């Protein structure tokens, strides 16, 4: 593995942008989700019993316990923490000095504080992934704000290796769980024939992807299995071109997912983790700059050819293995490539038992190699105190990396029970101690394909008289058959996502839905803005509905017409069943559900705080109210990227000026050297003339010629010029 200075800097910048996205996206939705009149008020999660602050933090690690000490209620404190997180991440995005270990620690603590009270709306795998990756940033980032240096540290490759191990766990587990779940669509390679229309919030391109032939959909599933299960083993290859190939395959998969689905910042975070597969040499290749190595001699031709041969063998084995495992062959009748799963569940389970423990040993060997090479670099540092300080740093960070790796083995081996049971009990105890802080997590996305019989979708209807009903259309999730799917990455509308999960089962599995119906009947503006940021688009913005009900429908993408033209509508649907009965304020069923789930606030409303901080927080809220979250996020990202680009161009111009100054100095030296050179040329000419004249008469000695120097040469030049003029 080469130097990783530039990939590490890119990784930290991307993490700052993702933190910015996550905090802003959550901030916009706090009043409707966690406000005092929201769906699940956050203050219900914090019981102020008068215990010491330390005990409160141990019981629930969140900074919201400090709210009363600052004179803030829980809702205002949440908004304040989100604003601080957004400001810190924006500063880290714009200024490299803020991409510091202390800043990333603050960002991690702030997001963890939100996560602790976020309840069902924050319990997504990408929230866990952000917390785990954010914790790794604390180890990867330099410590400069308290007097450190931004220079390259010998242990950087050890800590940065942890992001590669996290990427391996994420991708490998995501591929394995699709097969261990025994989902018939994944085993039949038909999952993508349903995925594009049944995913939570598709994009317009998902409609076009859904129209592809079945053979292409099955080949896409095969490609996903190869990229998620087989390719991750190349992350630890000692051959850099294999790692680069794995990098581009992973990025290709993530780009396809981004184009076809709105998965907030998850795929961007995965691409950020993929940066751990790069080195400085390849980044310089992107920048079209020459990469200077310390090695004076290039690798021998024999070694280069051996590497090429080994790489070809690896890719050939990967291709042949794919053909055998999925029985790929040309189908002349259908004019395509036929595919099927050529192995059984029992065979795959044996494969999983065989490779899980070797995966751990591969990680051990790779981490050990990084540690040994880093220790060797520490030993090569000149100066006793620098060498000693570097060794101390290496000891601390190598120990932290080894601990993180050991603890991560527990969630990683969840994919295979026997391997998990063979782990050392001490590792299990360590995992139980840090589990609540989301330092390491288990992953496995798209375990089973839902909506095989049609995409279930809950449609809420309101009425003022109980006779005429009007559908309440959400801003992002499918509802209106003619409305095109939105593009809102990297924002996550958390209510829309939970509406997708709610449609998969009865309303009793989603207690928050009762709270949603109750708040809509009350006409709470904060909740209405979760449905439509522009309240005027909400059909009951003037007066809350007197009655509400909800039905479940089955949605499908429309098909293209026989002549190849596009249909007028994006969706078609059929009625399925009643999801929630007709309710109104004071309805016995609604009251019973609210009391059953503890969703009715019996405590009196709290008086708003009038402290300076609270007023400032409310002023910021008034400025962004009504602005769509995805528009706000992309505006911040575009402005930040533009600022960073201009900053980079300014530094480039400064760097260009420095060589120009040096060039001027060099030009001056060259002029002087040229003058000396011309005088020496003239000396040669005068010497030749003197050699000719010495045959007729005596000449001056060479010492006298050297003493006269440039003056004699100038005289000679003037004489020669006069002779030329006379001849002309």
UniProtKB/TrEMBL annotation:
GO terms for cellular component: endoplasmic reticulum membrane. Residues 654-728 are annotated as: Disordered. Keywords: Endoplasmic reticulum, Glycoprotein, Membrane, Transmembrane, Transmembrane helix. InterPro entries: LMF, LMF1/2_C, LMF1/2_N. Pfam families: LMF1, LMF1_C. One of its GO terms (biological process) is protein maturation. Residues 689-728 have a biased composition (Acidic residues). It is found in: Endoplasmic reticulum membrane. Its main location: endoplasmic reticulum. The keyword Transmembrane applies. The keyword Nucleus does not apply. Residues 123-284 form the Lipase maturation factor 1/2 N-terminal domain. Residues 654-688 have a biased composition (Basic and acidic residues). It comes from the Eukaryota. Belongs to the lipase maturation factor family. Involved in the maturation of specific proteins in the endoplasmic reticulum. This is Lipase maturation factor. It comes from Maylandia zebra (zebra mbuna).
